[in-house]
């Protein structure tokens, strides 16, 4: 399916960057979303859940024309599983695929018109994943792309004009547990339905990006001493 051919009859989206993974599908204009149980983002759960979702819509996997995937940053394991599942679905069906940064999906849903927001996620080891966005009439403007930030940087940050999107772990990592930002959206999660909408817009514009996960730092492996 190319942009010139219009929107696909069936499109699916996977968002597995957090402990609340979700899937979504659009079939002939109707959108359904399903949030999976916390921590159940592996392929053994994703594919059966997706099959049930398609059955609810009365859609056949043979009609699949687009696969959208949240690319993080977030859980290494969740992102790997989501990307591998998206690639497998696209290759098996011949569908187009497109990645959408999970932070963008989160900010798009949480920010009002002309609002600027800061997305924070605990990256462990005293670090955070951070990004800044501004909602515009035409969509979402990236003011600061996702990156790794140190706790000390947050102490110098003026959040008075920012909507902060962060869970308790990110607030603790930033040192803000006792004095959280004034405009705080707590425990928000990126949504597969938003990944679906943003991804389809990008496919229509021809601005397609891969579904490779946004790994912002090397994966650390700890070995046990014998």
List the helices and strands and how they pair.
Layout (H helix, E strand, L loop, with lengths): L9 E6 L6 E6 L2 E6 L7 H15 L6 E7 L5 H18 L2 E5 L1 H9 L5 E9 L2 E10 L2 E12 H5 L7 E4 L1 H7 L9 E3 L5 H14 L21
Parallel strand pairs: 1-4, 4-5, 6-9, 9-10
Antiparallel strand pairs: 1-2, 2-3, 6-7, 7-8
Helix pairs in contact: 3-6
Output the strand order for the largest sheet: 3-2-1-4-5
Helix residue percentage: 25-40%
- Which percent band covers the strand fraction? 25-35%
Whole-Å distance between the termini?
A: 55 Å
Radius of gyration (Å)? 18 Å
What would you call the structural class? alpha/beta
Order of helices and strands: EEEHEHEHEEEHEHEH
What is the CATH first-level class name of the largest domain?
Answer: Alpha Beta
Shape: globular
Please mark out the parts with pLDDT under 50 across 5 or more consecutive residues, or reply none: 221-226
Query: How many domain regions?
Result: 2
CATH topology of the largest domain: Nucleotidyltransferase, domain 5
- Going by CATH, what is the homologous superfamily of the largest domain? ATPase, nucleotide binding domain
Please, how many helices? 6
Mean pLDDT: 91
Largest sheet: 5 strands, mixed
Structural overview:
This protein has 226 residues and is α/β, with parallel strands linked by helices. The protein has 2 domains: 3-102 and 190-205, 2-Layer Sandwich (Nucleotidyltransferase, domain 5), CATH 3.30.420; 107-186, Nucleotidyltransferase, domain 5 (2-Layer Sandwich). It is built from 6 helices and 10 strands. The strands form 2 sheets. Strands 3-2-1-4-5 form a 5-stranded mixed sheet, sandwiched between helices. Helix 5 (168-174) links the parallel strand 9 (163-166) and strand 10 (184-186). The longest helix is centred in the middle third of the chain and has 18 residues, at 76-93. Residues 221-226 have low confidence and may be disordered.
């Amino acid at each position: 399916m190319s942009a010139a051919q219009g929107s696909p009859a069936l499109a699916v989206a996977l968002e597995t960057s957090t402990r609340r993974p979700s899937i979504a599908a659009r079939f002939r204009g109707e959108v359904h979303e399903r949030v999976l149980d916390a921590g159940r983002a592996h392929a053994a759960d994703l594919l059966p859940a997706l099959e049930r979702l398609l059955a609810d819509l009365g859609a056949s996997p043979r009609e699949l024309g687009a696969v959208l995937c949240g690319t993080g940053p977030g859980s290494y394991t969740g992102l790997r599983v989501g990307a591998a599942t998206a690639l497998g679905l696209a290759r098996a069906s011949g569908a187009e695929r497109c990645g959408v940064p999970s932070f963008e999906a989160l900010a798009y849903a949480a920010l009002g018109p002309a609002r600027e927001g800061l997305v924070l996620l605990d990256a462990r080891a005293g670090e955070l994943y951070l990004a800044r966005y501004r909602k515009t009439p035409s969509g979402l403007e990236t003011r600061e792309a996702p990156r790794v930030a140190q706790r000390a940087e947050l102490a110098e940050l003026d959040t008075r004009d920012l909507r902060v999107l962060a869970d308790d772990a990110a607030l603790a990592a930033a040192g803000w547990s006792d004095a959280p930002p004034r405009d705080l959206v707590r425990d928000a999660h990126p949504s597969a339905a938003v990944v679906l909408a943003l991804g389809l817009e990008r496919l229509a514009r021809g601005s397609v990006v891969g579904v490779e996960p946004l790994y912002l730092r090397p994966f650390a492996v700890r070995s046990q001493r014998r």
